[in-house]
Design brief:
The protein is mainly α and 92 residues long. α1 packs antiparallel against α2.
């Protein structure tokens, strides 16, 4: 199984590095386009900025939920019920 560690080390390091490169390039382009949009259409820019904030909040909420499940001890939400033992007890 993989040995992914915080900071992008382990089996997923190449993928993490590619995602970082992509995000950096995308961020730079977004700043360039956003600057032009802010000057020409400030109302549209405001709506897009608000929508981006909402998308980021939704992403964070989704990731937080998954992280809680990933970090929980195995079978944390399960309880073993002995149905055979319950029948024997009710027969007595």
């Amino acid at each position: 199984m993989g040995t992914e560690q915080p900071g992008g080390t382990g089996d997923f390091a190449p993928l993490v590095e590619e995602v970082r490169k992509f995000a950096t390039a995308l961020g730079g382009k977004a700043v360039e386009i956003g600057g032009r949009l802010r000057e020409s259409n400030p109302e549209v820019y405001g709506h897009l900025a608000a929508a981006g904030g909402e998308l980021l909040a939704a992403y964070r909420a989704a990731v937080a939920g998954h992280e809680q499940r990933w970090s929980a001890p195995q079978h944390a939400e399960t309880e073993r019920v002995d149905l055979d033992g319950a029948e024997e007890a009710s027969d007595k």
